[in-house]
Amino acid sequence: MKKYFILIIFLLLLSFNLAQEETESIYPTTVSELSARVTIYGKGMVNGLKEGEEANFQIITFNDTPLQSVKIIKDELNIEGTPFYPRIVLDKFNNKYNMYTITKNGEFNYEIIADVNIKANIPELIDFEILEPSEMLKQYTQPSEKIESNSIEIINLVKNKLVTNNFVNTLHETVFWVNDYMEYAKGDEFNKYYLQQKTAVETLLTRKGVCDEFANLAAAMLRAKNIPTKMAIGITYDGQSWGNHAWLEVYNNKQNAWIPSDPTFREAGFVDATHIKMGSFSDISLSIAKATYPKTANITFDTQSKLPKVEIRQINYFNLITLNPKETELKTDTWNEVKVEMTNNSDRVITAPISILENYSEMIFQKKKQTETLKPKEKKEIIFYIYPKIILEENQYAKGTITFNSLSAPKKQPITIVKNPNTKIVGELIINDITPITHGEKLLIQIKATNYFNTTKTIDYNITSNSLEIKQTEEIPAFSSKIIETEIKDYENQSYLINIKTPTSTYTQTITTTQQTLIIQKPIEKQTVVEQKIDTSDVNTQGNFFIKNPLILMVGILIIVGLLLLGIFWTNKRYV
Question: What is the pLDDT of residues 165-186, one digit of tens each?
Answer without folding.
Answer: 999 999 999 999 999 999 988 8
